[in-house]
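Example record used in the benchmark description.
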Amino acid sequence: MSRVGKNPVALPQGVSIDLAGGLATVKGKLGALKLPISKEVEVKVDGDKVWVKPLSESKQARMSWGATRANLRNMVEGVSKGFTKTLEINGTGYRAAVQGKNLQLNLGFSHDVSYPIPEGITVKCEKPTTIAITGIDKQIVGQVAAEIRGYRPPEPYKGKGIKYDTETILRKEGKKK
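Model output (structure tokens):
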């Protein structure tokens, strides 16, 4: 029994969902997203709520039940509010800047790192040490943030590197004499 799947997804004002041909299309003020619906679950729209139910008691149907409901909820939130991940850069001389469709990262390597910004994602650098990644697809926003963080993950001794703003770095004690 899925604890997540039992609850309905509430549709806020200005968000519509269309179920046709095994594809759910969610449209809102920020854009539209599509999700292929598994043959193991049934999706119904009832007023301003979306219900997901499994078609059988198989393990695959129970797994798809909660996952489909969570994905639909993320799509509804994405097209109505959007998602944002913020990264912080720590280290002497480390900085970031947006140049056209690329994010230029100066991370202490011999050459600057140029990261191409994917379609549907907005990257802003308010300060040279913060990067704000915004988009309507939660998966793509998280993936872009993880790829940027992967260029220079934070190290435990001085805390230098790129980290999420909510992340805490466990610091280690250095050498002793």
